[in-house]
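Re: [help] complex structure
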Amino acid sequence: MRENKLQKDYIIDLKNISKTFDDAEVLKDINMYIRRNEFLTLLGPSGCGKTTLLRIIGGFEEASNGQVFFEGKDIASLPPYKRKINTVFQKYALFPHMNVEENIAFGLQIKKLEKSLIKKKVKEMLELVNLKGFEKRSVDSLSGGQQQRIAIARALVNEPEVLLLDEPLGALDLKLRKGMQLELKRIQQKIGITFIYVTHDQEEALTMSDTIAVMNEGKVQQIGTPVDIYNEPKNAFIADFIGESNILPGTMIKDYLVCFHQTDFECVDAGFGENAPIDVVVRPEDIQIVDKEKGMLKGKVESVTFKGVHYEMLITTGEYTWTVHSTAMSQVGQVVGMVITPADIHIMKRR
Amino acid sequence: MNFLKKTYVAVILIIMYAPIALLMVFSFNNSKLPIWSGFTLDWYTKMFHDTGIQQAFMYTLIVALVSAIISTIIGTFAAMGINRMRGWQKNAVMNITYIPLLSPDIVIGISLMMLFSVIKLPFGLPTLIVSHITFSIPYVILSVMPKLKQMNYNLYEAALDLGATPWYAFKKVIFPEIMPGVIAGAFIAFTLSIDDFVVSFFNKGAGVDTLPIKIYSMARKGVNPTINAISTIMFTTIIVILLVTNLKANKKVRQAEFKQ
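Output below.
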């Protein structure tokens, strides 16, 4: 569906980007585009190259190969201060010898705006990030969450076309992080610009993004909506990285029929060919526990862990140990049946 | 036990400061001989009327100020460059920086003298200033470096990101961050320059004497309490500078603590 969009809709277009640091290939031939006004997340484990890719877009790093197009123009040779892009850095990077107002006004002063206009814009920004009246506070008197908001205000006041965010919530505690996730999404929708967000936290990515680009080992593994990525992971790495998964080897007997765990299952996938080797993904919450006679598979409950909303159970069938999430608890040692509906069986090409 | 502690400290202080105290006392002595024979300010009057001393004082001040300013500028930018280097290159440059610090003054003095002779630079104020800049730069680098390492490099990138040119980012963001290190470096360069005898001795021109050289040549001609007077004034000046800067630094620390 993404492919059908018109070219002019793209704000950033990355073509064949690679990056090498002292012989280590960090990015390998990245090709992707970012649409205007979308919230795109670069998601991947640490060392996958996501921050490097962000820094190339921001102009802090030069690609060894390839081009970065911004609104159709190659900006590879443009220094950061000439790009219509602003960044929120991982450790906030607020200027410690300036107060909140001076920090936010930094970019406006460079543009030589009138003093009264600067004051007005700073005030508006502080309202946007819910820190009204913080103008004269010193930066080190603020909490981590407040510093984060100031960093966002300082970037947004310059009215960039694109805002880059490098794991901005990484240093906050869980509760604050959840609040800020919603807040960021609200801000992005209100001002209507493109956000490119880097994180290793899959839950954060699923919560906020319009589009997620999953990265691993310097390559983009899959791009899609959070629902697509979660429900139709393209390979075992993504399935494993985005949420918990049961991943089993199997064979696609024909369209809509798959064999794994020495059992034939109906499924909703087609187009893999006949007798093709594939991997099957089943999410732990998609497995229903039933009486042992009614199950498609039979297994013994190995362990039960209370996780708050649900119980996490490990159920072994002898051949494979399944991770199952259920709100109903089974007893350890009990033999139970498991049911998987066709729509919950996800087929991936074997890598 | 407590008594022992106190005497121990007292003995150390006496060993350290008795010579200086003695020198100060004899600068007010009404005799050329080191025997107390009444209070006088004659030596101070003499000192202020001696054009040779006045000239040496002026030279010392000019050389110290100019060499401190130039070496601070060079050293600060050098430190920024070194800080951005990686791996063996950084180590190599840092070691080269340390060498002049560790090598004896006499070696630096003579090697500079040879260099100036070879390139046929006439000895005088310029050679004196250049030689002082040379031995001051490593000290400036070493005092700026820790501040640069402490600084979050993202601050510089954030400034660029917000539209600052590299020079503007240096002025508004980097410099305020590393300023304590830069000022400390400038002070070290200034005092080293005032203090220096050996390097100056080999690289000065005829008639261009700094205070230490002037004192040395006076002392060779025999005991002269004017020397005591000059030394007393130099010592008190340094002590006053030290006290003022320390008090200011303390005040800042207390303010920072109060904020937290």
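Residues 106 and 198 of chain B are 6 Å apart (CA to CA).
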